[in-house]
Structures are given as structure tokens and as C-alpha cells.
Amino acid sequence: TGSGGGMPGETIKMVGIRRNPNEPLGLTVEVDEHNQLVVARIIAGGMIDRQGLLHPGDVILEVNGSAVTTPEELQTEISRAKESVTLKIGPSIEEEMKSARIMMAGGQVKSGKNLEAGKKLTCYMRALFDYDPTEDNLLPCQEIGLSFQRGDILQIINVKDPNWWQARHAGEDGPIGLIPSQELEERRQAYVPPEADFVHKISICGTRISKKKRKTMYKTKQ
Fold this sequence. Notes:
The protein has helices at 47-51, 71-80, 182-190; strands at 13-18, 27-31, 37-42, 59-63, 66-67, 84-90, 101-104, 107-110, 123-127, 153-158, 164-169, 177-180, 218-220. By secondary structure, it is mainly beta. The chain folds into two domains: 9-90, PDZ domain (Pdz3 Domain, Roll); 101-220, SH3 type barrels. The strands form four sheets. The protein has a five-stranded antiparallel β-sheet. Strands 1-6-4-5 form a four-stranded antiparallel β-sheet, with helices on one face. The termini are far apart. 24% of the residues are buried. Keywords: SH3 domain. Residues 120-189 form the SH3 domain. It comes from Culex pipiens (House mosquito). Pfam families: PDZ, SH3_2. Residues 14-89 form the PDZ domain.
């Protein structure tokens, strides 16, 4: 075809999603440095995750035939849609999001085959601080944050995103939500500005906190 977008035709795909209007799709999006609207993360167990049709890094071009370039436009078109949503998806300019080196309880775990997107990992950690997602200015969507208190045991489900891990309370069949990663929470405690912040256009907000020695935010549960 003679499309002028510079994207090979065979890499464009149409994705049909069966939607429950009362359930969120279970994904967050962002505009990357190439001004593309990309899938930032898929929430484990959510509607998109269950249908397995989208992946982090996918570029959303259209919703039901209407072009979308911002999260607000996407939200508007999704709201207009009823049970059926058809997305036109293109590939990301970046071949894949960089595999993050994950900091866990003082030890580094490199993101490898066992930590790829969508894979479940069995890791239990004890929280060493309280967390209330409704008070977190950095959280992309407060409704999908997971609150916890110091001493709670969390089951870590997905650590692909360098800023936000997916977790649930251990021993409960409750919802999976986002919690700040070890690295993000350490940086916030020390008030160290992010370096380009992993493509996420967010900045550290709030009152300045004096720089402290590095401290562990989660403790591996043996």
C-alpha cells in the first residue's frame, strides 16, 4: 500500500477486544520520545492481559477507526465504544523496552528469561514502609495502585517496569496492583532526580527530602 507513515504494512495489525463496560481495560499508556502513543504496561489479570492481544511497547494508532495520539484521546474513544473495541496497532520504534536491572533487597537480579513481560514470578517480600496510592503523585493511575503497610508480605508478580512492580497481598486472591519499585522508592527517599526517567515523562514531586544513605525498601521473604 502507499501509506506514507514509514511503517511496513505487514507490521500493522488490527486487534479486536471484547469489553465489559464496567471493567477497566487494565493497561496504562504514555507518549514516548517519538510522540507515539504506546502501551506502557499491562496489568496482570486484567482484561487486556487475559485476552493476551497487546504487549508493552505496542503503538496504538486508532480506536474504532479514529486516530488517537494522546492518552486523553484514547480515553475518549474507549468511552464511546461499547462492548467491542478495535485497535490499530503498530510496532514501537524501540524494538523492546530495555530490560531493567532490578534492585531487590540489596541484591541485583537481572531481567532475563524468567522475568520477561507477562511471565509470573514467585517472589515474596516484606514491605519496610507504608504506601498509599491515593497520595502518590507519580502513580500513572491511582485506581490501580496497591496500598500496603509496613510489615505486610507482598507477592511480586511482575517486575518488567523499572518504576512500577505489579503485586498483590500474599495469601489473598485479591486484585493485582502497582507498587513503587525498589529503585523508584530509593530515588524518591533520597530525592535523586531521574535520568530521563525510563521514557516516563514524570518528575519527582513534593517536599525536598534530605539525601540519606541508601536504604532497603523491601526485604526478601525467606
